């Protein structure tokens, strides 16, 4: 099977975007009646202005599909930032090397303390995040962190700069089950402009990362687009195409998708392409109708009001009580979550500042169940790595 980079530039993304803008009610109605998007053209119709007037029906269909495949559950996780040191220039990122913030890579022992602080809040699933810097991934540092936090956190995933397959393998063997890598923008010209220097400037290398991760036998692979850099409909069609490809190519792995919208961050970059809350909800529902088995992830970038509303409409995974600064949990009083959460070395400032317990209660209030743990290394066979995917 061809690599995604080999077919990406042949995708009719601009034609589909224009088709989306011109979608008529006549085109849209059969898709809504069917309750599923069978093709990228169907998906383009579901994110059209015409479909925006049918948001209530879209939401109903999305809710029904999500309950069918995932039940009334929300999987909770927390990001744990290990490092904000980075060799890339990303014009929109608070960790970009040109931004003047305090730089730190926390020691392994501190990472363990941070994970224990999160465990005290109820979490059993964490996402280890680090800027793209040799210090963050060389000399076995991340591998050691994974091994040391596993007794506290049964489910550990990573969000790091892209690596080679053989460099991922030790992390999987150490017990890491998931990898998240956002393309940020699928628009080549915008990508080049946003990443003028550093390893991240290689568009194709980043785009092929999920396939290398699959070859390394990660159990979960997450992709996404950072909305606000380019036209959101174009980005979503590209993301949907990527997810469809990975669903076929990486069939042993669960695919998750995220649609982070740009938030205030050091460097003061402003979004270039606005996306309203209503359009955001429409995008979530459309993705669910195209990809009924995919996990859809929502972070604390979004407001409490919007996050509460999306609990019932298609989201399956949500973070809570997040800090985007290395060492950002143990330095705060966990019993006084109402204090300001803005941090000097953070990647971006979150919007939903509720404590994990408050958010879990908000989930229960809507008749859903917060799931703190859905994976345990003790259930994985000690045989070959491939057995973790059966």
How would you describe this protein?
The chain is α/β, with parallel strands linked by helices and 390 residues long. It has one domain (73-276, 293-332, 343-375): Alpha-Beta Barrel (TIM Barrel), CATH 3.20.20.70. The protein is 40% helix and 12% strand. The protein contains 17 helices and 9 strands. The protein has helices at residues 4-8, 13-21, 25-34, 40-46, 49-52, 55-70, 108-120, 134-137, 141-149, 165-174, 188-194, 203-207, 209-215, 232-249, 277-290, 304-310, 356-365; strands at residues 73-83, 125-130, 155-159, 178-180, 220-224, 254-258, 295-298, 317-319, 369-371. It has an 8-stranded parallel β-barrel, surrounded by 5 helices. α6 packs across α15 and α7 (108-120) runs parallel beside α9. The protein is globular. The two termini are 21 Å apart.
Produce the secondary structure layout.
Blueprint: H1 4-8, H2 13-21, H3 25-34, H4 40-46, H5 49-52, H6 55-70, E1 73-83, H7 108-120, E2 125-130, H8 134-137, H9 141-149, E3 155-159, H10 165-174, E4 178-180, H11 188-194, H12 203-207, H13 209-215, E5 220-224, H14 232-249, E6 254-258, H15 277-290, E7 295-298, H16 304-310, E8 317-319, H17 356-365, E9 369-371
Parallel strand pairs: 1-2, 1-8, 1-9, 2-3, 3-4, 4-5, 5-6, 6-7, 7-8
